[in-house]
Write a structure and sequence with these properties.
The chain has 1 helix and 15 strands, in the order αβββββββββββββββ. By secondary structure, the chain is mainly β.
Length: 228
């Protein structure tokens, strides 16, 4: 009898825990616009409503983890590892006149994105030019994945990934709205390097000297750095 009661108690506790455990949303959902948007979800449309206290809009949201491309409202969050590849006028999103096409970066080595796109970690801007595919801006960026690179030439406003340094800079017309391009090098097995004075100095490295140079546009000198 005692064993039966104990078993029933364990079964009841397990059932209660299962009922209490939160269930992760998947697929699509409709939420009030003042509700938090789960990480990794995007806003695919919105419309006026009288059913949400404190706001007059509803959002249709989608789980981006199962997608590689999506059309989203311009005020949608863009998940990490995704980029904006185009923008155009649309009436599917209340309170805005246009939407974005976003793409998940997977095996791509290069991609063309709108200039207002986030630049994911490990990617750099290698060129910029005028193109009419992005409503709200007149130019786009070409991004390159640096995973398999040790040297690359980038626009001066490109992010510089951790462990990379700027070894030279020169005037260019290859980057719209920027007058310079940088040559970057990835520090791997090196213990010494010569960099432009405006280069980031990686953690664990120090400046051991400086020198005059004509290879670093708009500066005039560089640093000798060494690994501690």
């Amino acid at each position: 009898m005692t064993a039966v009661l104990l078993l029933l108690g364990l079964m009841t506790a397990a059932t209660s825990q299962a009922q209490a455990a939160p269930q992760r949303l998947t697929g699509n959902a409709t939420i009030c616009s003042n509700s938090p948007i789960p990480a990794g979800w995007v806003i695919t449309s919105s419309y006026s409503t009288g059913s949400c206290t404190g706001t007059s809009y509803l959002y249709t949201i989608s789980d981006a983890s199962t997608l590689t491309n999506a059309t989203v409202c311009s005020y949608s969050p863009v998940p990490a590892g995704w980029v904006i590849t185009s923008g155009y006028n649309s009436g599917i999103c209340a309170n805005t006149t246009f939407v974005y096409t976003i793409t998940k970066l997977t095996t791509q080595a290069n991609v063309t994105v709108c200039s207002y796109s986030p630049v994911p970690k490990g990617w750099m801007i290698t060129s910029a030019y005028n193109l009419g595919i992005c409503t709200g801006t007149t130019f786009v960026y070409t991004l390159a994945n640096t995973a398999n690179l040790t040297n690359v030439t980038v626009c001066s406003y490109s992010p510089v990934p951790t462990g990379w340094v700027i070894t030279s800079a020169y005037s260019t017309g290859g980057c719209t709205s920027a007058g310079y391009m940088y040559t970057l090098a990835k520090l791997t097995t090196q213990t010494n390097a010569a960099v432009c004075s405006f280069s980031p100095i990686p953690a664990g490295w120090v400046i051991s000297g400086s020198y005059n140079t004509g290879s670093c546009a708009d500066s005039g000198f560089g640093y000798y750095i060494r690994k501690v």
